[in-house]
């Protein structure tokens, strides 16, 4: 009841507010005593209401300890040193909708009391500009101080947003930042550049050019492209970036099919260009043969079979 009625972290751990702030050693000892008293195993034989209150009190004890630790570090320590990468990122799975990348860093050999590490935070950009500049960074995960790696998975919603952001602009790499964190703040990040656009086959393709005569799109064939609709010659300078109306991913040609590289929606197929006619071959298009007109005989012409046939009637 005392813990649930407390209004400050000091009161939760049993310290008076009118005395000097407890040291880290003092509030850590108080936290350990309360954790032993409120352990669920010691409350399992009590009533349901007591167990619920005990669980809530234990949660507040943990939260009070973290708050006091953060306050102590804000005035007594510096931000941690920048993490060091343990190696390049590794692609664990390149299958569509199941992509996984692992990043890892080196844990310090010993904890610096002036720059302690409480945890590591992993951040990624949720959007990119048309030129590939990252912005709107979001927190992907927080891992303990003794964990030296993190696996980015496409199944996780926020991590999927970051992956698809790189898909939309076909960025060559996806930047992921890792910060060491304590109560004072974040360290400078170590940045991992994950190989991206060239690492996945469905992100490859041919861009489009727009014909200025018929305003139809065709796949770019090089310096000049023959329009598949009006046969006009389209220069490479007419190249455009087409975006998907559903996910804003870039649309590219895969063979004769125009599709979104992000959601893979198919938008159409390229019209095959007509073949040129060569002398000595059949015409490309033949008009249907004209129907034969019936033949009529003159009135004084008799049937050649003799006797006039058909009762000797004339035709």
Report on this model:
The protein has 315 residues and is α+β, with helices and mostly antiparallel strands. The chain starts with a helix and ends in a 46-residue tail after the last strand.
Q: How is this structure best summarized?
A:
With 315 residues, the chain is α+β, with helices and mostly antiparallel strands. The chain has helices spanning 2-5, 9-12, 24-37, 40-43, 48-76, 157-169; strands spanning 84-85, 90-93, 100-106, 119-128, 134-144, 149-153, 173-182, 185-186, 190-195, 208-210, 217-219, 224-226, 233-235, 239-240, 242-243, 250-254, 257-260, 266-269. The model is unreliable at 301-315 (pLDDT under 50).
List the SSEs and their pairings.
Blueprint: H1 2-5, H2 9-12, H3 24-37, H4 40-43, H5 48-76, E1 84-85, E2 90-93, E3 100-106, E4 119-128, E5 134-144, E6 149-153, H6 157-169, E7 173-182, E8 185-186, E9 190-195, E10 208-210, E11 217-219, E12 224-226, E13 233-235, E14 239-240, E15 242-243, E16 250-254, E17 257-260, E18 266-269
Antiparallel strand pairs: 1-3, 2-3, 3-6, 4-5, 4-7, 7-8, 7-9, 10-11, 10-14, 12-13, 15-16, 16-17, 17-18
Helix pairs in contact: 3-5
């Amino acid at each position: 009841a005392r813990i649930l009625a407390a209004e400050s972290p000091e009161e939760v751990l049993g310290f008076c507010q009118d005395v000097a702030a407890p040291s880290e050693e003092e509030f850590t000892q108080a936290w350990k005593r309360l954790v032993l008293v409120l352990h669920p195993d010691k409350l399992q034989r009590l009533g349901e209401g007591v167990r619920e209150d005990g669980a809530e009190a234990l949660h507040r004890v943990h939260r009070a300890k973290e708050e006091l630790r953060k306050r102590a570090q804000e005035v007594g320590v510096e931000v941690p040193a920048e993490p060091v990468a343990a190696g390049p990122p590794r692609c664990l799975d390149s299958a569509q909708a199941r992509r996984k990348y692992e990043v890892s860093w080196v844990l310090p050999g010993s904890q610096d009391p002036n720059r302690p590490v409480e945890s590591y935070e992993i951040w990624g950009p949720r959007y990119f500009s048309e030129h590939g500049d990252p912005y709107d960074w979001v927190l992907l995960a927080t891992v303990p101080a003794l964990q030296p790696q993190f696996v980015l998975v496409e199944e996780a919603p926020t991590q999927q947003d970051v992956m698809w952001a790189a898909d939309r602009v076909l960025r060559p790499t996806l930047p992921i930042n890792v910060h060491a964190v304590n109560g004072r703040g974040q360290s400078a990040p170590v940045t991992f550049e994950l190989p991206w656009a060239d690492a996945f086959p469905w992100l490859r393709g041919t861009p489009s050019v727009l014909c200025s005569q018929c305003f139809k799109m065709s796949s770019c064939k090089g310096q000049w492209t023959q329009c598949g609709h009006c046969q006009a010659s389209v220069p490479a300078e007419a190249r455009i970036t087409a975006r998907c109306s559903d996910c804003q991913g870039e649309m590219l040609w895969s063979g004769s099919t125009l599709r979104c590289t992000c959601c893979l929606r198919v938008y159409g197929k390229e019209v095959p260009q007509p073949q040129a006619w060569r002398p000595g071959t059949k015409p490309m298009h033949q008009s249907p043969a004209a129907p034969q007109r019936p033949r009529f005989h003159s009135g004084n012409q008799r049937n050649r079979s003799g006797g006039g046939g058909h009762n000797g009637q004339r035709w």
